[in-house]
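User: Quick sanity check before I run a bigger batch. Here is a single chain. Can you write out its predicted 3D structure?
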Amino acid sequence: MESFSLILAIVVVTALAFDFTNGFHDTANAMATTISTGALKPKVAVAMSAVLNLVGAFLSVEVANTISKGLVDETGIRPEVIFAALVGAILWNLLTWLVGLPSSSSHALMGGLIGAAVASAGIGAVHGDVLVTKVLLPAIAAPIVAGVAAMLASRMTYSLGRKADGKAAAKGYRAGQIASAGLVSLAHGTNDAQKTMGIITLALVAGGSLAPDSDPPVWVILSAGLAIALGTYLGGWRIIRTMGKGLTDLQPQQGFAAQTSAATVILASSHLGFSLSTTHSVSGAVMGAGLGRKGGVVRWSTATRMFVAWGLTLPAAALVAALAEWVCRLGDWGTALVALFLVASSFAIWRISRREVVDHTNVVDVDTDPVAGAPGQPEPAGVVTTAMAAVSPPPAGVTEDLTATVAAPAEPSGPSDPQASKAASSAATTV
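Assistant: Done. Predicted structure follows.
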């Protein structure tokens, strides 16, 4: 094993802590639709996802190499810079988890690394071409591609299964959802676990423990896989609730289409070395699947808050990381102060989260958006949702009742005949 300094050991531990938050933050990517449609019990779903995340971590190192060799100039990076980057990424992950927003852990890490590198060595430390081609462009393209694919797949699924036996079809879609959820978990391990591998490898190079351009050592791959698997098993229940119930209401056919489309996009990007956000891909697929069913709608108010969080992720994490890097430059006591701030902030966020506990026992109890209101208070329909519902035909088998009951006018004040008043109060007119 490589020789370690104290700061390098701190960086590795912090990187694994980020990997842990990545796991529970992104559990919803793989299992939210499976849990919300009832295909798997919540605890079984997260356990399955954890195992497959660990397996996926060993399938490729292309994304890890993008992080450690491509995004920033590794020759000008000190371990303190990487520590500051991780502080920005962890705090953003925890804040978005607290409010139940599925933001990108990947972009939080990218933003933190960019902010800390620029604060330390200037704008030249960031390779702009890699940032644009392997981070920003995939961030825009992934949710669109996954969303369109999921919408078309949902419509095709409903069309092909129109004449299928109801019970047999439901059983088949349940099996398909479980298989596709496993595929998403495997894809998540091949993409997101590698980001922590890349950041640890970059720290080892910066600390002189590895030669430049080295691939991640085996112990780095194993530890990163275990950390993200543990975080996944504990489950990010707040984000699972938003992804599974807050964006749209999915049937098993739609869940299967969404997960298959997202997994395909994620695996393709991992093969190409793109540092793709699995959150963007899965969220786009869920929204596309929601629109793929006749009469299905997306809760655009929730989606809008999610889009805002996506846009803020890179700059917010970069700003926190840049400030942390500036404090770390003051010496060992500065680094200790940043570490203390990280621990205290994380504990404070956890304490706030205990005021309203969301776990496997209540994650699918209500159809609610935890950002919009308290559990049990469904999100009011927005303008777009109402309009789409108005023009969509009613589901098959539902007959429209064209009768309405209009209450009789209120009894006028003043003395009147008691029998007439009694008759008027119970009268109703049917039109």
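Residues 366-409, 420-431 have pLDDT under 50 and may be disordered.

User: Great, the batch can go ahead then.
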